[in-house]
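[Backbone geometry]
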Amino acid sequence: MANNRYKKGLWMMMALCLAFAINTYAQPKQWSKGIITNEFIFEKAPYPECHSATIAETKTGLVAAWFGGTKERNPDVCIWVSRLVNGKWTEAINVANGIQNDTLRYACWNPVLYQVLGSDLLLFYKIGPSPAKWKGFIRRSKDGGITWSAQEALPDGILGPVKNQPVTLNNGNILSPSGTENNGAKVHFELSSDKGLTWQATEPLNDGKTVKALQPTILFHKGDSLQMLCRTQNRAIYESRSADNGKTWSPLDKTSLPNNNSGIDGVTLKDGRQLLVYNHVLPPGNLAKGARTPLNVAVSKDGKTWYAALILEDSPISQYSYPTVIQTPDGLVHVVYTWRRQRIRHVVIDPKKLVLKEIINGEWPKVEGYTPPVVTGDTKDL
């Protein structure tokens, strides 16, 4: 019996050591300068999987949303919302489901929160059996996400933002980054001149075959210049530029940053720099998909030359993905993202404290004393 107790104790010690080792990957000291908060929005949930988090700053504080259910695509997947109140995230409430009638139910997908200046908090999401067949919906809140309007179906031809948030242009119009996957992966934009009440869609920027682009994020440059960065199935982040407030765009072009066919998001900081959150992963061989780890933060002055700033996660266990990033009026940057499909992580960053190292030839810079883990993560459920 004593021997059994010894073996049991040994196994417990090994388990604790393994848990500690895995945990240390989450925030490598050499790549964590500037992080001031790192927390889970929830520890337990009434569903086993969650994904695709979004966050917004409202007059009553921060609001976050994501989809959760037994598994992505399953009909029981719903949209959940939590608010940060007195420094703690509230228990998430179910605000949308895909019930069509007594016998038909679809999954909910990719919520996107957007606070319209001086108006409503918008919650966009999709309902359908797949990204190729989903439809866009919206709910509105006048009290910072405490209560919500009835569900509205977006008009035919309007999907809403597919992952990343709209932006308000210099002329007051709202530009929403969107796209379709029913005939190749194509990106387009949707424009509103009445604070999100009505929308008009542009033509696609690409044919969906040569460059298979998804889920744009929009950055601001001087004057009326804009930059769009997007996820692709072409092993790299691609960009397009506009010099006229989004009326016309340049052809999609490859950037120096790799992409593993997973979502990215960026924000233009108050000091004019661009901050991007993404998986700095080049898939093996000629594959389009790669493991969704590590999760990185890079910064650029011009949107061309990028500097490594942070590694938010670097465990060899995959699925740190689909970030959403905003900057609040106090200057702090907030990032939410999927943590192993089990939880949603919230990280707060002080951009003034970031230590930057140039990314050369698309390779994350090496730092003495830090060895990246060998990543063997899977590519399922991407």
Observations:
- Residues 5-25 have pLDDT under 50 and may be disordered.
- The longest strand covers residues 49-58.
- DSSP finds one helix and 26 strands in the chain.
- The helical segments are 2-24.
